[in-house]
Every structure is written in C-alpha cells, then in structure tokens.
Amino acid sequence: MATDEPDIDFDFDLLRELTETSGVPGYEDRIREIVRRELDGHVDELRTDGMGNVVGTIEGELDRSVVVAAHMDEIGFMVRHVTDDGYLQLDALGGWDARVLKAQRVTVHAQGGDIDGLIGSPPPHTMDEEDLEKKASVEDVHVDLGLDAEEVKRRVAVGDLVTMSQRTELVGDHVTGKALDNRVSVLGLIEAARRIESPTATIHLAATVQEEVGLRGAKALGVDIDADVALGLDTTVANDVPGFEGGDHVTRLGDGAAIKLKDSSAIANPKVHRRLRALAEGNEIDHQMEVLPAGGTDTAGLQFAGGATPAGAISFPTRYLHTVTESVHAADVDAAVDLLVAFLEAEDGDADYRL
After folding, report:
1. For residue 47, what is the domain's CATH number?
2. Sign of the CA dihedral with 184 first, then 186, 191, and 196 last
3. Cβ distance 87 to 230 under 8 Å?
4. Which of 75, 248, 338, 341 gets the highest tally of CB atoms within 10 A of its CB?
5. Please, what is the Cα angle at 171 between 170 and 176, to 5 degrees?
C-alpha cells in the first residue's frame, strides 16, 4: 500500500527539475536558463554577469538593499583522459568522497549530446584483501560507456563534463536525490520571488556559480552589489543518523529551518542571526541553530568581498551531503522558505546590524 505524500507548500515539480538538471562549477548553463525562466515576471530587473551569476532584483521603496545568494552548481567531474580501451578518467569539480562513486550511473555531457555511462565496481569474487582495503580515489575511477574505444574517442573529448545520474523522489516525508546541494536553495530564491510583492527594501536574489570550488561567484558578486545586509542560502549537515552522537548531528531533519551561527568560512553577524531567530519565533516557524564545524558557503563570499557587510544565513538541513541520495525533510523546506520571506519582508530600514 502506498504511503500518503507529505503536505508541502513548495513547488516539488520545479525542485525535481532543478535537481535532475545538470550544472557543474563553471558550466551552470542549463540551471541558469531555468532560473531566468522562473524569475522572469516576478522581478523588476533580471541580469547575468560575466561569471554567470543570475541576479533578479525587486525594487523597494527605501534606499536600503539586501542580497540573498544561493549557488547553482553541483559537484561533478571533467574528463581528463580517454584510455586506449575507451574508458574515461576524471578530474573532480568539487569535494567528492570517492567511496560513494562505485556502481553508480553517470551522464557524460559531450559536444554532440549527453551519453549515459556508469562507474563499475569489480565483483568481490575477484578481489583479494589488499584490493578490498585499498583507499578509494577519484583518480582511480573509470567511466564505462558500453561502447568500443574508437566510438568513445569519436564522441568524447578531454574537457567534457560528467555528472551523477539520479531521480529525485519523495521517500516518506523526505525529498531525496542528487544536487539538493544546492538546488533546494535555488528553489527557495524562486519561491521568495513569487511570494514577495511590494518590499520596503530592494531585494537582490542571486543564483551564484562556482561555489563548490571556492565561493567564486559570490566573491565577485559581493564586489558588484553593495548591499546593506547579505544572506546566504545553502544546505547544511544533518548527521542525525546511526553512528553519530547528538553533539555531532549539527542539525536534525524535521526540526525546521537552520539559522547559521558559524561554519568554517564565516561567523554570522550576531544581530542578523538574532533577528532571524526572533522572526522565526514571532511567525511560529520551526527552526534550529546551526554550528557547522567544517564547510564553507556563499555567506563568506558576500561578507567581506566588497567591504564589511553584515551577513547571516538560512540553511536547509540535509542528510548524506555530496552523494546521490541527499535528503531533506519537506517540512524543513517549507520552514526555510517561510523564514526567508519573513526576513525579506521585514527589512524596512529599522534594523541596525552594526556592532
């Protein structure tokens, strides 16, 4: 018997399209087109910069502005070599744990079109103890296209891109799939644009590029947009699974939107995160506080790239980050979007984030 689907307010079909569409760092073209399509008609100005960041601006009544950034790129690979036998060797774009790559399906984005492939795993029957204990490495990965070597070399070139292949589905109360980091936040930007009509402050909704390789898009954006306050929008760790003690959970699925206090790249402005918490409490939005020991976000790229800017972040708690089974709780997605909208609508010029 099928279980009932969770009660959700966000656009699940759009989230599925965003996550199942590919876009690695520096090559976010397909995602960029979706973002432009969805923001068009909901913002007063829509532009793309020289790096590929998309910025939708909703003009406010006062001389005050806020920028919200969510990165479009997903971790992936670039083909670095085609072997004489027709297998592809890869260079990582972003942080991979190579242990999760075995026995996975992939898509090769070649000039002539997408090609299905797989990363195989030798059967244990043929592996000795030394093979089984060998540390996994991206450099050792080989993509099998099921084609003879001559055909592979005709269709695939060094520099072609590779992404994981996975459907996005509802599993119980969770949404699971690839690239929820950070397409769920891109969805959040779009949902905010749909809901906000007449803000007091000017709002810049930015879908950024190349976050997974060093916050590059946000750093450039922070120079170009001189906002009064900046907000990062990203996923965060939810280690609320077997094998982790409570202090290592960081966040828990189902406990609401995460309000960032710190990560390894940024310490949130205290007045910003306190305002987020007050808004969550005042609007009865489920929330939790986030202390992330490792991992950076666009928050840091915006915080000081163009000078000192008060910055904070709203995070989507996510299990199994940087795998093809990333999972978010549907209620947490709703809560994070609700908190983002509440923050943007409350920016009326009265808040002073100077310390």
Report:
1. 3.40.630.10
2. positive
3. no
4. 338
5. 65
Which residue shows structure tokens 């590779």?
A: 162
Domain end: 111, 139, 164, which one?
Answer: 164
Strands 76-82 and 88-93: antiparallel
Report the CATH number that the domain containing residue 114 is assigned in CATH.
Answer: 2.40.30.40
Statement: the pTM of the whole predicted model exceeds 0.85: yes
Residue 182: asked if its preceding bond is cis (omega within 30°), the reply is yes
Residue 354 resides in a domain: no
pLDDT of residue 1: 38
Segment 74-99, tens digit of pLDDT: 999 999 999 999 999 999 999 998 88
Q: Which domain holds residue 82?
A: 76-164
User: Which entry of 191, 211, 290, 345 is annotated as an active-site residue?
Assistant: 211
- Cβ burial of 12 (10 Å; 0-12, 13-18, 19+) is middle
Segment 271-293, tens digit of pLDDT: 999 999 999 999 999 999 999 99
Q: How far apart are CA 148 and CA 162, in angstroms?
A: 19
Backbone φ and ψ for 131, nearest 5 degrees, come out as -65, -40
Q: What is the pLDDT of residues 26-47, one digit of tens each?
A: 999 999 999 999 999 999 999 9
Residue 194's H or E segment, with its range, is helix 180-195
Query: Is 207 found in the same domain as 327?
Result: yes
* Single-letter residue type at 99: R
Are 326 and 318 spatial neighbours (Cβ–Cβ below 8 Å)? yes
Count of helix runs (H) and strand runs (E) in the chain: 9, 17
**pLDDT tens digits, residue range 122-135?**
776 566 666 656 77
Residue 235 domain flag:
yes
273 inside domain: yes
Residue 211 bears catalytic tag: yes
Give yes or no: residues 295 and 329 share one domain.
yes
End-to-end alpha carbon distance in the chain: 56
- The tens digit of pLDDT for each residue in 48-78 reads 999 999 999 999 999 999 999 999 999 999 9
